[in-house]
Amino acid sequence: MALYIQAVVNGFLLGGVYSLMALGLSLIFGVMRVINFAHGDMMVWGMYLSLWLFLSLGVDPYLSILASAIVLFLVGAAVQRGLLNRILEAPHEMQILLMLGLAMVMENGALMLFGPDPQRINTSYGLATAWVGPIVFDLPRVVTFAMAFVVAFLLYIFLRRTDMGRMIRAASDNQVGALLVGTDILKVFALAFGIGAACVGVAGSLMTPFFPFTPSSGLFFTVTSFNIVVIGGMGSLLGAVVGGLLVGVSESVGAVVLVPSLKEIVTFILMVVILIFRPQGLLGGRR
Amino acid sequence: MIGRVLLGAGVVSLLLALPYWVSSVWQNLLITTFYYAYLAQAWNILGGYAGQLSLGHAAFFSIGAYTSAVLAIQLGVSPWLGMFVGALLAVLLSLGIGYLGFRFGLRGFYFVLLTVASAEICRLIALHLPILGGYTGLFINFTPNPWQFQFQGKIPYYFVSLGFLGAASLVVWLIQRSKLGVYLVAIRDDEDASEALGVNTFRYKMLAYAASAALTAFGGTFYAYYQFYLQPNTVLNLNHSVDIMIRAIVGGTGTILGPILGSFLLEVLGEFSRTVFAGGAAGLNVLIYGVLLIVVVLFLPRGVYPTLIALVRRVTGRQA
Fold it and tell me: Residues B8, B9, B12, B18: what is their CA dihedral angle, to the nearest 10 degrees?
């Protein structure tokens, strides 16, 4: 029993970062209707940025989330400005192609710079734990969980309370309407993609103290983000959060109940069930 | 008209003579090009004509590959027969996924994700089926027996792959000319409107999916007996579904020549980045390939074939 509770706890704590990662994807899709196939690779770039800062300057990964946020924001905004904005009139599937090309570039760029070996950041507190009865809480996981929620909350405040956030939401709800009231839609697009990329970059950095990664980890994160967003409900911020926690827990429990290499199948089956019985997602209002 | 006949005859005789002129490296390149063009053509029925983007065709491909291979290894059934069993199983899977997706009205992004998820479920299951060899993969012993779909040298494979491509293109041409093709294009352009006009969108999307899956499964059999090795993480990987899809999209979806041109262009680009940047750091060639893909999208945002047609029309000043 303790094993299962432990699995739920670990999955729940990991789910916090998953939520942040999915928030980024949901924001990008919600505003531009672009499926970001490079999402996981952007996350991996955040991870390697933290690794590089840690190894060269000794910056703690929980501090380097700021660098990740800034760098990935610029990458995301540049992708939207320089690439996606140029093909807005083209058939929709061309955007998928563009993002797939970008994913190849980002993944193999990381491979060339850092090599194929698995990496993780070994901090002094990396193995610190706290026991509550028979259950272990890994301290880095707890800190990561808390920080992911702080960032998600800040994003929520930004989207709800600031003018820029309102512009993004307006563009997401009704693009033509937003244009009619004079929104600079291309600027909003770049901003939204930048913020979405910054979210996933921060999520990547937050995972580095306890999650080993390689340049090819991106695909797993991309697919996981897709699943979370479908489960939670496209365009629903709360849905991304709930979906992230749910997927974290189901993966973790799946690894215990089944063999670890089959853990993702639980998530996929969950996703198929959701698609059948509630296609708009758990918390999605409309499709 | 005479010009077209001459052009056709020229292309056919060139294709027939080509493998005897070139080295085995080029033969291999041509076979790969035809074979991917074939898969892209199969994808085109669902993704191009019906407008339902699938990123899970690796599942049908693998069912075709594994079914014919396992039947041959375990029971000695010829792959020429086994591939029909594989196609049947692929059709059943496509109808299952299609039922889930189309019955509940999943469109666009949601359908893409359903196909990704179903292929990934297949990959995870395949990795844990002992009969498929698990992580080690499945090896096929080479016995040069054409009845076992195994040939000496590359030239027979050249003609088999060319034949496959020709047959698939013929199927697509027939679909395009038929009522089914018209319905599919109507569904792609405006699903709600075609439904309002009385088109049974569910039935025709299912038909397109099944045809696409069956053809893809045949392609899997070809792959199994060209490579003699199958592993779920290579044949059933998301990247493989991507490989199939991008050829059709680059060439221009919903056209017969699009997937073929797309396959040629991407094979050339892939080979260029592989050979020119082979000496560079690991990953450089794929990075260059990604850059080239982005460049193609930026400069040919409507696909190769539609752009080519527009160009020809502008030069000749003729409306077709």
Answer: -120
Determine the 3-state secondary structure of A103 from DSSP.
helix
Contact B60, B217 (CB under 8 A): yes
Q: Which residue of B has its CA nearest to A111?
A: B283
Beta carbons of A230 and B253 less than 8 Å apart: no
Domain range list for chain B: 23-316
* A252 CB-near residues (< 8 Å, 6+ apart): A7, A8, A10, A11, A12, A14, A263
> Is residue B320 helix, strand or coil?
coil
Residues 6+ positions from B37 with CB-CB distance below 8 Å: B165, B247, B259, B260, B262, B263, B264
Query: Testing the interface with A: which of B104, B189, B285, B287 to mutate, by most A Cβ within 10 A?
Result: B287
pLDDT in tens, A136-194: 888 889 999 999 999 999 999 999 899 889 888 888 888 788 888 877 888 999 999 99
CATH for the A2-277 domain, from 1.10.10, 1.10.3470, 3.40.50, 2.40.128: 1.10.3470
Task: Please identify which residue in the block is written with the tokens 């405040």.
Answer: A157
Contact list, B245 vs chain A (CB under 8 Å) = 96
Distance from CA of A114 to the nearest CA of B (A): 11
